[in-house]
Amino acid sequence: MHNLGILLSGRGSNFLAIADAIASGKIPDARIAVVISNLADAPGLAAARDRGLNAIAIESRGRKRQEHDAEIVATLQAHHVDLVCLAGYMRLLSPGFIQAFPQRILNIHPSLLPAFPGLDAQLQAFEHGVQVTGCTVHFVDEQLDHGPIILQRPVPVFPSDDPHTLADRILEQEHIAYAEAIARVLSGNYQIIGRRYLPKARTAPTKA
Ligand code: GAR
Question: Closest Cα partner for 112 from 154, 147, 169?
Fold first, then answer.
């Protein structure tokens, strides 16, 4: 059984999509061991509590990043987490955090990276005038929105869109993409070569 740790700062719709995907068997052999937020009033944390999950606020305000991250790492380890999923977690992770979970931290970002990293990616894409954007699930490394890409889903931008309708269309795809990416990573059936995520060819079972 895999233990997921979810980090969030806001509404938590990606967290809920992950929880639903576990419940429906789309992410096999996994449970959410703990949900952590840097903001005590994050709606996602309340939603986790409503679902009977361990939901913990570790406030970041006024604390040094390294010290705050060390407390989160210790909490994840205490819950035996083996895969960390950032789900709208709006803070950069310190190198110590990343080194504590090598190739075991995922993030979802609402654009087709490397286009539009950082804040308000949907608005950046809208204002740039792109006709296709989307979402990306990637491993977290020490640079912002940068690590190896596991999965992307494209989303069209229509002339009738405003930033909100576009963000909603991207979010629908995020919910599908995150569950699928987590299932892929937990299967272990891939390798990372350079920056490239490559599924391993399935070998036919050998006959006894
Ligand atoms: C999502 O759109 C996610 O991709 C984005 O924050 C939103 C969180 O929504 N994350 C980032 O921009 C990270 N750079 P949610 O709280 O409903 O999951």
Answer: 154
